[in-house]
Amino acid sequence: MSILIKNGTVVNEDGMHKEDVLINDGIIVAVGKNLDAPENCRVVDAADKLVMPGGIDPHTHMQLPFMGEVAVDDFYSGTRAALAGGTTMIIDFVIPAKDSTPIEAYKTWRGWADPKVCCDYALSMAITTWNDKIRDEMTEVTKPEYGINSFKFFLAYSGMFMVRDEEFYQGMIHCSKIGALARVHAENGSVIAEKAKALLAQGVTGPEGHTQSRPEELEAEATNRACVMASQANCPLYVVHVMSKGAARAISYHRSKGAIIFGEPIAAGLGTDGHHYYDKDWLHAARYVMSPPLSRDKSTPEALMDLLAAGELHLTATDNCTFNCHQKELGRSDFTKIPNGVNGVEDRMAVVWHKGVNAGKIDPMRFVQITSSTAAKIFNLYPRKGRIAVGSDADIVIWNPNDTKIISKSTHHHACDFNIFEGMEVRGFAETTISRGKVVWENNELHVEAGAGKFIPAEPFCPYVFSSVPHRAKMMAPRMVVREHERVAEITMNQEIRAQNQEMST
Ligand SMILES: [Zn+2]
Q1: The CATH number of the domain where 104 resides is what?
Q2: Taking all residues of the chain, what is their mean pLDDT, rounded to a whole number?
Q3: Distances, alpha carbon 264 to alpha carbons 29, 34, 185, 238, 369, in Å
């Protein structure tokens, strides 16, 4: 089946031109002016539209078992929602329970995802405990048959996923050795656990306790610590969900010193803020509970977009992990029991476009970078993904930059019964989405099939991430000083040996 997209403006991260795009068998086979349609080819008119690489969301948690519940968007409804918003690939996280192993968990996640995904996906792996077996299995899962090239460490969720600093450090040393990117959830989990106990003891049991137990400086502190430790381990680091200015500043500071660090703000943090936690309606407030929390500083969303525009932050994701209202209710009398997580995978592209391009902060090319191509580069999937070019996968979004829509739970495609962006009017949205060379979203309708997406293995030692690591290793190699008294001792010893040898030979 071939498709010819005519009359549109093709946008890549490094240029935009009025060109046609011809797709055959899931691959882009021609890009150029005035292309002719072959026989039996469907022609899609993209006049006044932008033809861009489909979005890549590098941070989702579909059907994650978490805090005694399972996230309601599974790999089917979650990837449907993604496609309706112009995202054609997700990178989800395998999170082994403390008593499980990376390989066991990997098989579980593949078993969940493969029959359900409607778009392509890759996997990242969380490391939630540390021993020799875990280390060996980390090495194993970076082999092509598993296709993992990044590992995430939690400095939060004490008693559940959190690792100690020495485990995180050893984990990063190993990541560096096997060519895998380290990713980090950076918050000071120990202090958060203490603050949460204190707040509950003082009777603060509502969602406002969630944000008060996690002050922004605990995110900034952990981000700074993670950056320092990554530099010491000579390991490239990717900070997931940068939610506050302090965390962003820490990343920017360490990058200014030459550290290899990537910062990922998410749709929620760019599109809304933490005032919701103080809402009088308990359920309304609980819907926004996620970690790190949304910033209580109202100027943060705009500041994060400015940093994306300036290149101080690098790409956008969502941390999509949705729980229904009745699941949020589990924390009615204790905010620490409210399942953490919000939506985003469907609305990320529109929110970033609206807050970035419409606001005059970024151009469409930077939009492509921060929603697609940088993720493809970091996870070693470029230019197969993240680019409109001959030979690339036909994962494409046709973007309508002129019309508006209102984001709402009544029209979204999530399994979740609310939307944190409810009522937000955005100008610019995915009008048509093409996944693996098939039109899967058009005229506000999805045409998807469970299991139509494929697992995309990601290779380690990505040049975009790792090229300077060996040189840094040389610069960081231990140096030893041979001191004078040691040298005297050495000379004396040599003389003695020579004398002995002479004695023996005579
Ligand atoms: Zn996450």
Answers
A1: 3.20.20.140
A2: 96
A3: 32, 38, 11, 7, 12
